[in-house]
Amino acid sequence: MNNQENIVILGIESSCDDTSAAVIQNGVIRSNEVAGQAVHKAYGGVVPELASRAHQQNIIPVVDQAIKKAQISRDEISAIAFTRGPGLLGSLLVGTSFAKGFALASGIPLIEINHLQGHVLAHFIKENENDESQPQFPFLCLLVSGGNSQIIIVRDYLDMEVIGQTIDDAAGEAFDKCAKVIGLPYPGGPLIDKLAKEGNPEAFKFSEPKIPGLDYSFSGLKTSFLYFIRDNIKDNPDFVEENKSDICASIQHTIIKVLMAKLKRAAKETGIKEIAVAGGVSANSGLREALQEEAEKREWKLHIPKFDYTTDNAAMIAITGYYKYQKGEFVGQDVAPFARMVINND
After folding, report:
1. How many CB atoms lie within 10 A of CB 328?
2. Residue 41 to residues 15, 180, 187: CA-CA distances in angstroms?
């Protein structure tokens, strides 16, 4: 492959409500710019049409800033990598269209990226040339984000197999929906985490889903939480305000217990002790503590990403593009985004 010694990838991420652009040079992060969208808070969740419009406004200045911060010229970019899916179709369309235009105008290859694969490979973003903190293959990755909860065997950079996943709601959705029930603003997950630190995780018990194998389910837990709050408010209208920290600690404890039970089972069944976590929910302090505790107990080698790489970001798209570039995995101008994509390489 020509230009092997100096591979510069521009990454574009626009799957939900964050517009992000990043530059990775030979596996090392040079810039990672993110523009968020506060407009959704008023609606208690992401409004797809508003997200698409905000991406259109943000994408050019964000890309411009990423290139400037990386201190490179546009001519040095080897390829552009973009999120093809999964995500909101309108938002993905903005990133895909921009990437196509940029690739065409610059005469460089176009690389499509599965957003979920990007979350996993965020562990391989190097902070500098001497960074050796990456997981060893094969490793297990617990991917927990707003829309996905999966356990993945990662055999190589581009060789992944999902061995367990949610059959309904994801862990991130459970956090946000339970937060909404008790009147917390969107996004509720980080607020539950904050309040949980002041509460008793054993104060209240919630039903844990009994799903066979390594798959997850959170819809039943969410429903039982809703009924629990409704029934207690009937008896005491101030129940939530009087017990908010304990409620948050208890629901967080339950969600983490469900996540950890399947991960422990997967590690035992596969015999893999190299364990990683990825996705937005991996920023949760309770989950991080539970992982550290189990890692010490079970002699796991644990890999937790930097907070910057847990939520949606273009650095994870660019690093995945870096590995795809080396294999010559490019796409044509007829590529279209997909709202739903699976991670398995069949």
Report:
1. 9
2. 18, 12, 7
The string of pLDDT tens digits covering residues 279-331 is 999 999 999 999 999 999 999 999 999 989 998 899 999 999 999 999 999 99
Classify residue 274 as exposed, middle or buried by CB count within 10 Å of its CB (0-12, 13-18, 19+): middle
- What does the CA dihedral 189, 191, 193, 198 come to, rounded to 10 degrees? -160
3-state SS track over the chain: CCCCCCCEEEEEECCCCCEEEEEEECCEEEEEEEECCHHHHHHCCCCHHHHHHHHHHHHHHHHHHHHHHHCCCHHHCCEEEEEEECCCHHHHHHHHHHHHHHHHHHCCCEEEEEHHHHHHHHHHCECCCCCCCCCCCCEEEEEECCCCEEEEEEEECCEEEEEEEECCCCHHHHHHHHHHHCCCCCCCHHHHHHHHCCCCCCCCCCCCCCCCCCCECCHHHHHHHHHHHHHHHHHCCCHHHHHHHHHHHHHHHHHHHHHHHHHHHHHHHHCCCEEEEECHHHHCHHHHHHHHHHHHHHCCEEECCCHHHCCCCHHHHHHHHHHHHHCCCCECCCCCCCCCCCCCCC
Q: Structure pTM?
A: 0.93
Give pLDDT tens digits for 244-263.
999 999 999 999 999 999 99
Tokens describing residue 200: 């008793």
- Beta-bridge mates of residue 149: 144
Beta bridge partners of 153: 140, 161
